[in-house]
Amino acid sequence: MQFDYKGLLIDFERWLWYIICYHTEALYVEGEISLSEVRKDNKGRKLMTGESQDKEGRYRYKYCDAFGNRKSVYSWRLTESDSYPKGKRKDISLREKEKNIQKELNDGINPDGGNMTVLELVEKYINQKRGVKHNTQANYNFVINVIKKESFGAKRIDKVKLSDAREWLIKLQDDGRGYSSIHSIRGVVRPAFQMAVDDDLIRKNPFEFQLATVVVNDSVTREAITRKQEREFLRFIKEDKHFCKYYDGIYILFKTGLRVSEFCGLTKEDIEFDKERIKVDHQLQRKRDMEYVIETPKTEKGVRYVPMNEDVAECFKRIIENRRNPKIEPMIDGRIGFLFLDKNDMPMVALHWEKYFQHIREKYNSIYKVQMPVITPHVCRHTFCSNMAKSGMNPKTLQYIMGHSDIGVTLNTYTHLQFDDAKEEMKKVCNE
What we know:
Blueprint: H1 5-24, E1 51-53, E2 59-64, E3 70-75, H2 94-106, H3 118-127, H4 134-149, H5 162-174, H6 179-198, H7 227-239, H8 247-256, H9 260-264, E4 271-272, E5 277-280, E6 283-286, E7 292-295, E8 304-307, H10 310-322, H11 350-367, H12 377-390, H13 395-402, H14 407-413, H15 419-431
Antiparallel strand pairs: 1-2, 2-3, 4-5, 5-8, 6-7
């Protein structure tokens, strides 16, 4: 059995420091009372080490925190039985505060959270993150900007109670923040407070609660469209003189389930015609400052090969054949040969395709009485997944193709099965 000499030394040094602090507190009381002098309050009660009372009658307790820093707490009452002075804010007594402080110190908790504010805590948490993706960093910046504008951000972390956390999130929704935004904010703030718990700055995480029990989920679910709507939408694009140039790309999105950032990042080398598959090992993003970056897929399971049928292969062949050959081939992080280029001979990004979908739908709905619902590249992905599920594809196979890290996402988020689907499935089972 090995003896922890280093740990014992640290404990001894901390104990010695406490002793020094407690036995020198009298030197810091106004009037420099001698150590031998018995100090009393204005009611004649003996004051303990570290306690004092000013001329106005307010009590003070001085102590050293877990890091050896000198701190003070105040109260207008010495004990719990004391009455509140007229006109003074109600607060717990000094002795109660002392008891809480000693309990925190004994447990290794910093009694005042290191005087750290919510904003400072979140900034510290984010600053420790390295190698985060572009979208993640953008989300961090969004959360910081929100907290900076909120009075909650200036609140000391040791003063944040469960009810405070709940009320703040409710306020955010009352101020017009959507559920998804609040979900993102809490997704950063909660682990930041957990870091404070792990660092012994606070005892409990005030954000450990189910978000749905506090704010209303008013987010719009991106539903998959029907097979009929998909066929009609693709037919319209194919026959339109202007938008037909986007047909092949949109057809691929509907028939592969690729994320739009993965789709935009495709190069000639990623299309393996001989093996009838699409290599997916990166995605293309463009920052607000217009900087292009190549990142790994959204999840670890995102690195995969997506099968392509004959129709999809033909679309890729036409895209490559009709692709403009720029004078200077754009290179992003060592990759060249991007399939889709904009008018400036730079790779297209998600925003381009989202605009194309928007304009196509607007034109369609201006012509036809039966309106087409909102369709985005992500709706294409939803639709592909739902169609594969309805066709009876093995869930694990579908999970692989979609690049989901959790099969629950495949089954619960992306498969939009309706009553008619259940009815048809029951017929199949009963007739077997």
